[in-house]
Amino acid sequence: VSSRYDRLRRALAGIGYACKGSMVGRHMPCGRSGCRCNDGLHHWHGPYFDWSWKVDGKTRSVRLTFEQAKLMRSYVRNDRKLRRIVAEMRTLSLKVVQAQLKAAAE
Q1: 3-state secondary structure of 29
Q2: Is the C-alpha dihedral spanning 73, 78, 83, 88 positive or negative?
Q3: In what order do the strands lie in the sheet with 58-64?
Q4: Rounded distance between C-alpha atoms, residue 35 and residue 43, angstroms
Q5: Cβ distance 89 to 8 under 8 Å?
Q6: Percent of all residues in the chain with a pLDDT value above 70, rounded to a whole number
Q7: What band does 18 get if pLDDT is binned at 50, 70 and 90?
Q8: CA distances from 81 to 14, 56, 87, 101 (A)
């Protein structure tokens, strides 16, 4: 357990910036009459990139450039990795604590 916990601790130290939320890239029609995007999905404009996250139960969203989207995608990925690592660390910690409490009660 302790060797796995140490590996997780090292992995945690290697995580860069982390931001909650999700990234989506989408193509959309512009709505102007006469535009080629009215001819179907394969003519829609884009991709447009949006980053969404929750603040006090409300969804916030920001439109991003391609370069910003590349950065934010890595930050969102880091946040998911961070949460997975911390969840596993908590699980391992609980096992250790339970064993220590049991040993102390004997």
Answers
A1: coil
A2: positive
A3: 22-28, 45-55, 58-64
A4: 9
A5: yes
A6: 100
A7: very high
A8: 11, 23, 10, 30
